[in-house]
Amino acid sequence: MALPLDEYGYSITAIITVAMQLACFAVAYTCSFDLLTDLAGSTNFIVLALLTLALGPGGASRARPVVLSMLLTAARLELALFLLYRVCRRKKDARFDEIRENCGKFLGFWVFQMLWAWFVSLPVIFVNSVPAEDQPPLGIADVLGWIAFVVGFAVQAGADIQKYQFRADPANRGKFCASGFWSISRHPNYFGEIAMWWGIWVSACTVVAGSTGDAGRLAAGIVTLLGPLWTMVILLFVSGLPFSEGASLARYFENEEEGQRWRDYREQTSPIVPLPTSCYARLPMWIKRCALCEFGFLEYEPTPRVVRPGPPGNGPE
Length: 317
Fold this sequence. Notes:
Blueprint: H1 10-31, H2 37-55, H3 63-90, H4 103-129, H5 140-168, H6 188-209, H7 215-222, H8 226-238, H9 241-244, H10 256-268, H11 277-282, H12 285-291
């Protein structure tokens, strides 16, 4: 069975994504309802993967499309259930407190979510659209890609759970998590997410590389790079690191002891890639900047308090 509108499924999956997210936005905005927001994003991935797997040429009889679709489905199902559980416990999502009642700003988040779900799904959509006879045999690139995905998924899911449990303890209010995966990376969940989608693409690129004799298919395959690149750009430069560090660290420096603890933690712990603290601490800054994402905008130093002298004559004798 062929995918409708175009042979690679890009058009129909884009239409489904827009329709699904706009429908969920209408409910969330009208009812001021946070339970639907993250659930809609995660389930969008699952819908696109399973739909293109079922409708693609050969259906679910092809090994690579089945494996990639199942990996994506498992990861996004876990994320959907975790985020739903978290927002149910908290009763609302604090991220939307300032935009929930503003239609334009709230819609902007949903447009961003449309792009996230569609771009990141592109490698799986593409692989699911290619007939079995036109796909190369499974090889080392597939195995390496699947391993990278599984490792990334384990780190991402484990880090989310560890941080949730840490924050659920009232004794940790105003503190940051530095245990488990967070002891070897300041943002292990971001590392896991990036590793997952590069892993999917590594497996998909074997199909892209086998499309050199078909200019249209090759162009459609190259577009799949948007998936992992979008994930990296968003997490490293847009809504990930910039919102997690920099000025956002001010809350830790309200307590001098916790502020010093953060300085020590930052000196020893890699921002993204999990590394032994003893190793990271010894690396020169230029390597940290160029290879390990220790960007200047992550730094924060509190403004020194200015002590003003009192009026003359009021001091001690």
